[in-house]
Amino acid sequence: MMDTMLHDKHGRQITDLRISVTDRCNFRCVYCRSADPENCHDESEILTWAELDRLARIFVALGIRKIRVTGGEPLVRNGVESYIARLRALGVRDVSMTTNGHLLAERCDRLVNAGLQRINISLDSLDAAKFERITRTKSFDVVMKGIEAAQNSALRPAKVNAVLVRGLNDDEVEAFAAFARERGLIMRFIEFMPLDADRHWTRSLVVPAAEIHRRIDAQWKLEQIPHERSETARKYRFADGAPGEIGLIAPVTQPFCGFCSRVRLTADGKLRTCLFSKEDHDLRDLLRGGASDEDVAFFIRSVINEKEEGHRINEPGFVPPSRTMVFIGG
Ligand code: SAM
Ligand code: SF4
Question: Domain range for residue 161?
Answer without folding.
Answer: 16-328
